[in-house]
Amino acid sequence: MRRTALLASAALLAGLLPWAATARAAGEPAPVPVDRFEGEVPFAAQPAEGLFTWGGDTDDPPTLRLADRADAPDGGKVLTGGYDISGYGGFTHDFAATAPAHDWSAHQGIRLWWEGRNNGRKITFEIKDGGAHGEASELWTTSFTDDFTGWKQISLPFTDFTYRTDYQPVGGIDHVLGLKEMWGYAVTLPPGAKGDFAMDGVELYGKADQALHASVTTDAPVRPVEEGGTAKVKVTVATTGEAPLTDPVTVTYATAGGTATAGKDYTPVSGTLTFPAGTASGTVRTIEVPTRRDRTAEPAETIPLNLTATGAKAPAETPRIVIDAHGLPYLNAGLPVKKRVADLLGRMSLAEKAGQMTQAERGAMTRPDDIAGYALGSLLSGGGSTPTPNTPEAWAKMIDAFQLRTQATRFQVPLLYGVDAVHGHNNLSGATVMPHNIGIGATRDPRLAHRTGAVTAAEVRATGVPWDFAPCLCVSRDERWGRSYESFGEDPALVESMETVIQGLQGRADGRDLSRNDKVLATAKHFVGDGGTAYGSSTTGTYTIDQGVTKVTRRQLEDIHLAPYREAVDRGIGTVMPSYSSLDITGDGKGAVKMHARADMINGVLKGRMGFSGFVISDWNAIDQLPGDYAAHVRASVNAGVDMMMVPYGYKEFSTTLADEVKAGRISERRIDDAVSRILTEKFRLGLFEHPYADTSGAAAIGSPAHREVARRAAAESQVLLKNAGGVLPLKKSEKVYVAGSNADDIGNQTGGWTLTWQGASGNTVPGTTILQGLRKAGGDVTYSKDASAPTGGYDVGVVVVGETPYAEGVGDVGNGHDLKLSAADQSAVDKVCAAMRCAVLIVSGRPQLIGDRLDEIDALVASWLPGTEGEGVADVLYGRRPFTGQLPVTWPKSESQLPINVGDPAYDPQFPYGWGLTTLTEVPKGGTATLRDLAVRAAAAERHGDARTGRTLVTEARLLVQQRTAGHLTEAVAGPFADADHLLLTGRYGKAVEKLAEAYRAA
Fold first, then answer.
1. What is the pLDDT of residues 282-334, one digit of tens each?
2. CA angle 736, 717, 423 (to 5 degrees)
3. Which of 451, 632, 861, 895 is least enclosed, having the fewest CB within 10 Å?
4. In this predicted model, what pLDDT tens digit does every residue of 24-58 receive, in sequence order?
C-alpha cells in the first residue's frame, strides 16, 4: 500500500510517540510516514516494493531484521542489523515499480530516528527521483554523522540533497530534484570496521521550500584562465519540469578570498543577476572577471566567485576562477623531463607530495573537490566502476570533469587515471574484447600479442584513460587458481615471448610514444610469484589459492617468476603492481612475507638490480593486509618501495597518515621524493601537463571492424585442437550441424570475468558475436538446442560448446564454489550428442577441464579458452576458413590429483602435454627418425646463425610428425620430452628442441 495510508493523522502519531517532536507551524502539512518497520514493507526487490541490501563485494551487504524494541520511537519494531564493509554496502527501500511514483513535493524534507553509537562515522542517505522505477532514477544524496548516543531524530531537508555525480543508473534525467516522482531511499553504511545500527520512523515532514522549484547552477566548478585573460562564468537558472519561473530569482555575486590578490592579480567584481518571473528554464547569464598580467613566474592562484541565490537553490559549490600557473620551468615542454621533475618537486609541500602518492576510486568522489583539497595524484575505475551511460563520450566527459579539478591546485599537476583493461577496454560497453591472456598464450604469436595491445591502447586512450593495469605477467603453476586465465601460460619463456603486448600498449621502450593519443602507460603485475601460490595457503575469506603463499627456492624464484619482469623492465614498462600474495624463499629466514612489504624484492631486486625506473602502484587496498595498525601498513609499504597507494575509499586517511609518518621521521623525505619523482616522470612522459584532457579523435575506431578483425584473428589462433579423430574438423558447409551446450550462445560466458564488471556475468552482456552466431554467419546448416533436448536424428556432426561461467580472482578458486568438472547439464549435452553422431566438443573456459572420462566418446576436442566478443573467429577454424594452429599454454591434466603439473616436472603424465596442438589445412611432413635427424641438424644450424624463423619452422615440422605418430595415444614417455621441446623452442634452442621431439617420437 502507499505509505500515506499508514497513519491517519499527526495526532495519532503524537499519541503513540509522546517523546517525538510533533510541533509544527500553522499551515504545515502533517508528517507522512514512509517506513515504520512494523512489517508492512517486506524484504524484497524490484519490481515489488521492499527492503533489500547491496554491496561492492559478496561480504559487504549488511544483515537486516525487524526487531521488537520496547524503546522503539515509532511503533513496536525497529529495523536493525550488522555490517562489516570493505568497499561499500547498505540497504534500499524501493517503492513498487508497478505502482505510480510518490509525490513528496509538498514537504520540506525527510526525517528518521537513528540509534547513535557515537562513533563519529558518516551515514549517507539517498533519495530517488524520476525515471521508470527505483533502480532507474536519479540519486540525490546527503549525510549525517553518528556523533551521539541513543535515539535521535535526524531531519534532512530536501535542500541539503545534492545530485550524485559519481554514479547514476541512467546518467541523470534532468538534474533537478523535482520530488513529484519519488521512488524511495537508500542508506549507505560506513566501511572499514564492524558495526551495527538501528533505525525507525522514516517520514516526510514540514512545508515545501520554494527554492526546490528552481535552482541556480554554473557551467563548471573551476574556470581556468591564462594570466591577463578574462574568465567567463555562466550562470543558469533551471526549474522543475522546465517550466518558466513563477517568481523572480536573484543571484548576487562577488569575488573575495582565495590566493589571488584583488587589484593586483585581478579586477574584483560584484553585482546582481536578475531572472524575472516568466524567465524560461535554462536561461543563462554570464559573469566576467578580468585578470591582470605581470612578468612574474608563479603558481596558479584562485579567485572564489561567491554566489547567493534568492528564490532558487544556490549552486552546490562556490565556483573558483583559477589564474593558470605560468613561467615556471616545469611548465616548459622544451626542457628534459628530468629537469622538469626536479623543478616541480622542489616546489611541492609534503601534503602535495603525499597527494601525488594517493590513488582513489572514482566512486569515492562524493566530494569531487577533494581532488584539489588532497592534491590527489590519481583516480581509477575498479571493475564495473563506469559512468552511465557507459559510452566513450561519457567516459571522456567524466574523466575531464575530474581532471578539471586539478587545475585548482597550486601547480595544476594532472591526474593519472587508470583502469583494468586486461583483454581490451573491457570496462566499456561496445569495446573490442580480446581473448583473455591464456588464449593469447595459446596463439604462440608475439606479433598478434603486440596488435591486441595496440588495439586495447587505442580504445582506452580514446576515452581519456592514459593508464592500463595490464599486462599480467604471472606464470600460472596451478590451474585451480581463479586468476589462471590472466596468465599467458605456465612457462616463463612463453610469458616472456608474449610481452610484445607491452610495446603494443606503450610503444617504444624509451617511452617516446607515450604521449601519443593511441598509447597508454602499462603495468606489469603482480610482482612477484602470484601464479605460484600453494593450494590451501590463502588467508583471504573463502579463497583457497589466490592471495596465498608462494614457497620457492631462490633459483625457482629467479627462473620462473622473476624472469618475465626482467623482460618487462627491458621493454620499458612504466609501472609495476605488487601481488597480494606472500613470498616465502627457502633459506632466507624471513618466512612468508606479503609482497607489499618486501623491500628486498621491490627496492632491492626490481628497482635496484633490474634497474626499473617507473613507479610501483599497490593493488586494491592491499596494504590493509599487512600486520600492525594503519600507520604500520603505510610505513611498511612505502619503505618497501611502493610509490603510489591504491586506497580506493581511504584516500584521506592514507595521505594524512603518510604525511604524519614523514614528520615523525619514520619515512624519510628522500623516500618520498623518490616516489613522487617517479610518478611525475610518467605524467610528463604521457604529455599530461600539455594535454590533460581526453583526446577523443580516436573514439570512432572503438569497436570498429578493423579492431574486431584483430580480435577475431586472436580468437581463431587461440583455438587449440586437442583431438580430431577421423578428421571431423574442419566442418563442411554441406553438413547438417547440430549445436548444443551452455556456452554456444552466451557471450557473457564467452568473454569471462573482467568484462564490464569485476566478476563478469553470463548472458547477453556486451555487443559481439557468440560462437553459435559465428557458425551461422559462416553459412553452415546449423540447428541449435542448448540442452540437446531437440531430436538428434538426421545430422552429420554435432558441435557441443560447454565449459565455465565467469569469475575473477579468488572468487574463482577451485574449492571456493568452483571445480574443474563440466556441469551436469554440460555432461548431459555431450553424452546425448556424441552418442547420436560424430561430435566436436569445444570447452570455453579459463583453464583446463577434466574431460578424460568422456574422451573416448568425443571425436574432436577443442580448448577454446575465453575467446572474447568475436565468435566468428572460432567459426573460422571450425569451418576451415583458417587452420587450427593454437598450442596448449598450460598442461592439461588427467585428474585434479595431478595438480600442480607443469612442463619440466620429473613426473609428467598429463591428458595433453604443454605445447600440444593439432592442425588442419596443413600437410604434415612425411618421414620418421631419419627425417627428425635431418631436422635436428638443420635446426641447430639455424640456431647458430641466429635464424629464428627457420628454426621455429623446423621445430614445428618435427612437432607435427610426433603428433601424427602418437595418433592420440599419449604416454608419459612421450609427454615429457614433447613438452620440454616447446620450452626449448621458446628459449631459442631449436636443435635441442628437435632432439627432444625425436625422443618423444621414438617413445610413441
1. 999 999 999 999 989 999 999 999 999 999 989 989 999 999 999 999 999 99
2. 115
3. 895
4. 566 678 899 999 999 999 999 999 999 999 988 78
Inter-residue contact 858 to 830 (CB < 8 Å):
yes
pLDDT at 169 (0 to 100): 65
User: What letter does residue 247 receive in the DSSP assignment?
Assistant: S
CA–CA separation, 439 and 451 (whole Å): 14
CA distance 525 to 561: 11
Q: Which three cell numbers stand for residue 264?
A: 593586483
Residue 120, exposed/middle/buried by CB under 10 A (0-12, 13-18, 19+)?
A: exposed
Three-state secondary structure string covering 639-696: HHCCCEEECCCCHHHHHHHHHHHHHCCCCCHHHHHHHHHHHHHHHHHCCCCCCCCCCH
Q: Beta-carbon neighbour count of residue 926 at 10 Å? A: 8
∠ CA 753-757-763, rounded to 5°: 70
Q: Please, are residues 267 and 323 in contact by the beta-carbon 8 Å criterion?
A: no
542: how many CB neighbours lie within 10 A of its CB? Answer: 13
Q: What is the pLDDT of residue 205?
A: 95
Beta strands in 520-676 (DSSP E): 523-527, 549-552, 575-578, 582-585, 593-594, 615-616, 645-646
Mean pLDDT of 967-988: 95
Residue 262 identity: A
Neighbouring CB atoms inside 10 A of 669's CB total 12
598-620 b/e (C-beta count within 10 Å ≥ 16 → b): bbbbbbebbbeebebebbbbbbb
Q: What is the pLDDT of residue 637?
A: 98
Structure confidence by residue, pLDDT tens digits, 923-967: 988 899 999 999 999 999 999 999 999 999 999 999 999 999 997
Is 619 catalytic? The answer is yes
Q: CB–CB of 434/454 below 8 Å? A: no
718 closest CA partner among 779, 771, 653: 771
Query: CA angle at residue 567 from 561 to 573, to 5 degrees?
Result: 105
Q: How confident is the model at residue 167 (pLDDT cuts 50, 70, 90)?
A: low
pLDDT digits (tens, 9 = 90+) for 539-598: 999 999 999 999 999 999 999 999 999 999 999 999 999 999 999 999 999 999 999 999
Has 570 been annotated as catalytic? Answer: no
- Residue bearing cell 607530495: 353
Cα 38 to Cα 12, 54, 95, 96, distances in angstroms: 16, 22, 16, 18
Catalytic residue among 809, 813, 957, 980: 809
pLDDT in tens, 892-924: 999 999 999 999 999 999 999 999 999 999 998
Q: How far is CA 901 from CA 258, 814, 848, in A?
A: 65, 15, 12
Cell of 480: 585451480
| 444 Rama sector, left if φ>0, alpha if ψ -120 to 50, beta otherwise | left
d(CA 478, CA 475): 9
253: three-class secondary structure by DSSP: strand
Can you tell me the distance from the alpha carbon of 475 to that of 485, in angstroms, rounded to the nearest whole number?
Answer: 11
**Given the residues 478, 490, 518, 619, the one annotated as active site:** 619
Residues 6+ apart with CB under 8 A from 438: 476, 484, 485, 486, 487, 488, 489, 846, 847, 865, 866, 889, 890
Interval 487-543: pLDDT, tens: 999 999 999 999 999 999 999 999 999 999 999 999 999 999 999 999 999 999 999
Contact 18, 71 (CB under 8 A): no
**How much is the pTM?**
0.85
pLDDT value, residue 905: 98
Residue 166: predicted pLDDT: 65
Whether the CB-CB separation of 564 and 573 falls below 8 Å is answered with: no
Dihedral angle of Cα 773, 774, 776, 782, to the nearest 10 degrees: -90
Residue 854: HSE in the Cβ half-sphere, 13 Å Cα cutoff: 24
